[in-house]
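Dear U.,

For the methods section draft, I wanted the exact inputs and outputs in one place so we can describe them consistently. I've listed the two proteins in the order they'll appear in the manuscript figures. Please don't edit the token lines directly; just add comments below if something needs changing.

First protein:
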Amino acid sequence: MHYVALAVVCSVAVSLLLKFAPALRVDLQRMVLWNYLAASALCWGLLHPHFDAASVHGAPLLLALVLGVLLPSLFVAMGRAAQSAGIWRADAAQRLSLLLSLAAAFTLFGEKPQTLKIAGLVLGLLAMLGILARPADAAAPRGAFGWLLAVWFGYAAVDVLFKLVALRGGDFVVTLQLSFGLAFVVMGVAQLLRRARFDARSVVAGLVLGALNFADIDFYIRAHQALHAAPAVVFASMNIGVVALSAVAGIGLLGERTSRLNRWALLPALAAIGLLARAAG
């Protein structure tokens, strides 16, 4: 379980770095750009994607291209959500995107509904209503609701795209490498268009972000490999761990603005993840 714990810590650390980018005088978009250089290099060096005629021919290039555009856009949205709504609400929205993925499994992939999955879906949707609710404090930043929705829908879209990769028989590591590389190119073009200047501070922050981002993915994969007989345990521990740790960090340590409804929404969120994990097991 130590791999799960490390993945949880890395995931919350990513959210913290995104949240504090303005305080560190780091441009969010430039940080996301260099993040993908680090993630792409680490993917190449540690996961060893196998590029040959067969793997390239069988790679879902269109899906990789869509991911290359969606991933950096989503990272920026996650940063805005963490800054405006707080890391715990942003992380909860990210983790509860599995509800939309489940709905897609029912409607697009022909998965049969089960009682536990339906119960988890209902509880999770109730939790999202509470999490999305704006705190009563009139000084709360505007735009939080929209960024949280973008995170919720965006991560679900990424999950659906990777399911499509699996259904088409594509190599996950090859697709991940292509997506990271394309994301770097997309963000690079975006920075050229906005005439962004080179900023060493953003480069360093981006490389750290990329290392944490990749470590999160790598540790999660290793956790599934180590506990291959209990995938539901890994799934539940990862998602519940991130929601719980980000709540401790955001509410307990950083004093992020929350309403009573926001805080109570944590209970059905954790219950929904637990039910879905049990159904998956």
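Second protein (the one for the lower panel):
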Amino acid sequence: MYLVRFALISGAAWAVLGLTSCQRQGSQESGVYTAQAAQQAYFEVSPDQLAHLQIAPVQRATWAVSIHTTGTVDWDEDHTTQAITQVNGPIARILVDYGAKVTTNQPLLWVSSPDVVNALSTYRKARNRVDLAKRISDRSKTLLDHGAVAQKDFEDTVADYNDAMTDVQNSLQPLKIFGITQREIDDAEKQGDAVNTELAVRSPIDGTVVQKLVSPGLVIQAGQTACFLISKVGTVWVQGHIFDQDLPNVRMGDAVDMTNTNFTQSFRGTIAYIGSFVDPTTRTTDVRIVTQNPQELLKKDMFVDAVIHSGTRRNILVLPVSAILRDEKNEPLVYVQVQGQPGKFAQRPVTLGMQQEKMVAIASGLQEGEPVVTEGTLFLQFANTAK
């Protein structure tokens, strides 16, 4: 019996000892693995290899934020409009051509239209009826004063006169819509004169004829046929394109300098509009730059290089662009030398900001003064991968 109990106790003891031994061994192996994993987070290079690397500390800088982009010249749509006729008929004469400088209400072409004849004839008849109704009303008033007509008859003549005046006002509306001048209306009131069948299509604004869309003899449709496109070309729009990372730095009213290799001078403009969506093809957002064009050198669809000046940013961390590498997921990283241990390096993921010249801003991942490899990074990347 004692032997059996001793055997049971001994077996239990051995089991406990065995378990403890296994736990100790597992703990030791785990410690070894952790140390190896920690060791693998860094890697070293020999002094000979270290001599080929350039290491610089992360520095703070003050940058005048300048965003470079390209743009395409367009007409200023706020000061560009079509000249459209309000009557039907064939074009009799064209008075201006491409590039002509025009002023508001200047005739651009003449249209021979029966609409004009009908409108002027209706107005002339209405004026004649007013004159007749006025004479009848005046005569009736005289007779009423002498008791020759009844009050009701006099009131009827006054009503006829008022109706005639209403017809005159109604007949004037088509003439105003057609753009017939007061002088032409006065000429239409002259009895015995032939009604002029031609109507001028006039310029709605001061500007330059940038498109001529008709030819002599073409039959145009009222309110539909655009005859000319007039634009104030002393100011143009430049349609620029901003990438996602630059959008936070662009503001309405930012000054923009633009250049074209064909001209020695630069052009000045301001940001007047920032788009509300990203183009799925180019991954850019459109911005509109209102640009002064006093010598009219900038033409529609011309390309320009633009620099947007978006103020100043102070105390930003910066590194040379050459220090930045990319991992297999295309995420940016740098190699940082371990403090106090020359030749010992570690990878560090970073978040990039704007880029200026050969420097790039670091939004996160590094602190001021940390030593970072700026030249020879590709060698470190290869050495770290091959390890």
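Candidate sentences for the figure legend, describing the second protein: The helical segments are 2-40, 47-50, 114-145, 151-178, 182-188, 377-386. The longest helix spans residues 2-40.

Thanks,
Y.
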